[in-house]
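Input for the complex:
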Amino acid sequence: MRNQRIRELRSLMKERGIDIYIIPTSDYHQSEYISDYFKVRQFITGFTGSAGTAVVTMEEACLWTDGRYYIQAEKELQGCEFKLYKMGMDKVPTVREYMKEYISRHTEKYNKCIENDVINNVENHTGQSSSPKICIGFDGQVLCARDGVDYERLAEENHACIYCEEDLIDTLWDNRPPFPTSQAYVLEEQYSGKSTADKLREVREHMNKQKADIHVLSDVCDIAWLLNIRGDDIRHVPVILSCLLMDMDKCCWYVKKENLNQKVLEYLSDNHIEVREYNCIYQDLHKIKGKKLLADLGRINYRMKSSINTELIDAVNPEQLLKAVKNPTEVENIKAAHIKDGVAVTKFMYWLKHTIGTQTITEMDAAKKINQLRSEQEHYIDISFDTIAAYGENAAMMHYEADESCNAILEPKGFLLVDSGGHYLEGSTDITRTFALGELSKEEQKMFTAVVRSNLNLAAAKFLYGCTGENLDILAREPLWELGVDYRCGTGHGNGYLLNVHEGPNSFRWRIQENIPRAAVFEEGMITTDEPGVYEEGKYGIRIENELLCKKGIKNDYGQFMEFETITYAPIDLDAINVEEMTLKEKNSLNDYHKKVYETISPYLSEDEREWLKDITRKV
Amino acid sequence: MRNQRIRELRSLMKERGIDIYIIPTSDYHQSEYISDYFKVRQFITGFTGSAGTAVVTMEEACLWTDGRYYIQAEKELQGCEFKLYKMGMDKVPTVREYMKEYISRHTEKYNKCIENDVINNVENHTGQSSSPKICIGFDGQVLCARDGVDYERLAEENHACIYCEEDLIDTLWDNRPPFPTSQAYVLEEQYSGKSTADKLREVREHMNKQKADIHVLSDVCDIAWLLNIRGDDIRHVPVILSCLLMDMDKCCWYVKKENLNQKVLEYLSDNHIEVREYNCIYQDLHKIKGKKLLADLGRINYRMKSSINTELIDAVNPEQLLKAVKNPTEVENIKAAHIKDGVAVTKFMYWLKHTIGTQTITEMDAAKKINQLRSEQEHYIDISFDTIAAYGENAAMMHYEADESCNAILEPKGFLLVDSGGHYLEGSTDITRTFALGELSKEEQKMFTAVVRSNLNLAAAKFLYGCTGENLDILAREPLWELGVDYRCGTGHGNGYLLNVHEGPNSFRWRIQENIPRAAVFEEGMITTDEPGVYEEGKYGIRIENELLCKKGIKNDYGQFMEFETITYAPIDLDAINVEEMTLKEKNSLNDYHKKVYETISPYLSEDEREWLKDITRKV
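Predicted:
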């Protein structure tokens, strides 16, 4: 069936004179997670992972994906024409390099044909009578503007051209899921901590600084933050698919009418926010003339970019930094959310430790249990991402999710890794614990202890204002690097407030890459996950994830010192730790943390649970 | 007298229509250290520090310098018109900002004048009859090309113009020191480890990669490395002031005839290196047409840049990385140099510890003593920089140098900081030790212990290939940051082989600044200093400096791990350490290091010295 789809796509490509068709994984807003409506790449390839790019030519069908998905993609591509390109592996070309090579190879071929033909008989699809050009096709609405501009340059430099007016897959896709239109709702100021009016004022101050007259937004999280409005258009990301255009006086929200109810309309009207039809953003952008437009080319689509007729200031959306620095109300709320979360995780651990070996538990049972405990908390809205409950070697796959076809039964030995989180009115959480279910190997204990040390060492950092995640990352990594072990991902990421649990611009990571913006300087109020791990294929996976709130420390002649407060409250499994491998400082850190966990969580537990918590948070 | 010089300069400026005259600290080659001939900024300001920029307008005379020199500059500027701008302090404008403000302020004034005048009566110095322009002046031969291009842009954007054909100070400077013309000599292959032919081949490979036809060099250390030739044109930097132009076949060295003797000429001839007159570089650059020229705008002067008429590839000189990665012969030689150095420093420590309190020692005596001990080593050529021997609070000034007017007498208490190094045929060294001369305060002990921990922690780093000094720096800084203390400089720098002891592109530092190239990825064979410190104004200064050789560690599925070998061998003063504040791992590191020091250095000592060394390198 997938090969049939490829054939149909090629015939559409032929009709339009397209030689290379690119299918990224994205919606119209460059969202990290996408609604089913946008799962075009999955439709054509059958690969269900969250990241990847498909490229179809007349000769080949290829899929690029990263290290998280090598194994899964190989499995899912079986039986279809798609060939897997493992991004990041030695000698594997990037999509761009692949295209470049394709264009140059075929341009030569064309040119040879022309020598034999009469030149004027050949007309390429652009209607120009010059020599024919290789044509790169893609849906301009789903390609990131920055990539589109890059492909434009590639085309220009290699005498190729671009066709981006159509979503070719749409024609092939019977029973395509509907475009999402969930109900929008207002996030009250007791939760958001800042009014929309104040946020608009702050954004306008930034526009002023950057000498911008007008500002376009397409990032759904930036818009949700700015308008204090949430929805449910993307699974586990409580947002509304929409765009926004604002100048110094006016603010227009481009959104489907179906998303809005009377209460939201009144709220918008009170805030002088005009509502316009979702699709009008392109024509409205096109009409702007003689103004300086602030647009983040990494966060708008290529069709939007192509609609711009006025001077462009390409800069990161000011909303990115503004929403990453949580205001005091948000901080207090998020701490409250973490207490609820800690209660759920602690109760889960109690259940797990008391049930394992007495009745059958599968990975899916474990996930269901923790989701259930979380949903019982006040102001719970949703889980914040699909729960990962991975047993034994399954946990070595960082983004494993059990399903009917693969659902391990937990045995009273080895590790269960549970990575989960919740959306509450008080914010979003993301926490990982790895539990010993029984006997552990020496290696498992050693690695677990190293991961705990990593986690604690980063959390204990004291640093001068100005440091970024690239400066601090090694504090987490050193205990593992000393053992010749690494985790092939960053150490942590920012977390949204009732938004995407992956949020920039703060993060912990060490590689400084040329084309990727640097991690942000840590500001008071930023919250970043601290999640080192060890993943040994075919053996086990360990991860301990807490969230760290950045705070000001002492200030003196040397400058402003900064530090972290851990705001995740759940026990770290002492059954898996070899205390002898920890320094005194690390032991003190662990004891202090466990004391805080007990004090914070115990009031919400039953007598039995409390007794047990006392014991498992004992001093080491 | 200095005010008289300023008056004379202004009258020269007036004659030429110059409004702002910039005097950087540089020679024609953007060298860090400069010969007396080039001390133009010192001549006009009286400020003797190694870094700073003077700017003279009709209204003001200003000097910019950095934190190392605030105190010294304030003192030395007394009684003259120069006003001090403290670079890096809040709200202090940069030279560029100052100029921009000056230009815009005066352009307004001019425009006002013109409104009252008849426009055509006014002619600016360029001879054009348009409105008069503010003119920025400087000697194009001493300004870095990158700064020149920046000032060009500044001028363009602000309707100003540039005058750079003359060194105005030369006219004022009676008895200017002569242009340096020391004797060049060949560094034999047993020391350099690689022939000039091989080095030329490697550079040409890089040129090929960058699609360059021709390559110009003005960095005197890059040239010395490439040609395996050394000299003595700059105090303590054994190089010849010269330029070099090479393509795929030919290589021309632009050098003063006075620098060359018959042996060197023969060597050059054997290597097919053509000798051309030093000053011909400008006309020869000018003649190049239709080629791609690789030139590092940060390492050529503005006059050279202005002479270029062909396509420019502005990239870091490939020699920078090539010379930073020491070849195996160099590594072995450098280790041998460090043994000699360690013997000198250990003997100095023995002398110091046995002499303090029994006879009068001044800072200058101490410097003289260590210089003497170093000069007794085989193949010694020179000290590699002016020895810093700073007692007590003097050591809080990072770049303190005692002289007749300020030469403290050492007392049997507190710290003596000695930062010194040597040039040998086997390479250059840079080492700092801080010695307890008697009783110490609790704070002094605490800080000394923290500095030792900093030094050892960085040296013990294990890290994946790809890390830079920005990733690793915090390993050194964390023990001090935990105490709310910092040192206001990088943690370490690369070191040349019988060249400048400050060498890029490897370094340890944490601030990632936009306009400064990032520190290089650590490669096997790079040598970097590890020199954390604490500097408390009016109290004390502590610094411990070792050199670290980067080596490959284990390689596995996670990648290539890297580590350091400490190649400086001299005792760290146990009299100043509070062992209780060290972790077990740190104590082991210190013991391992001291064991190696004893084993390496003891064979070169007298019986008494050896007994004493045994004791002061004892296990803690």
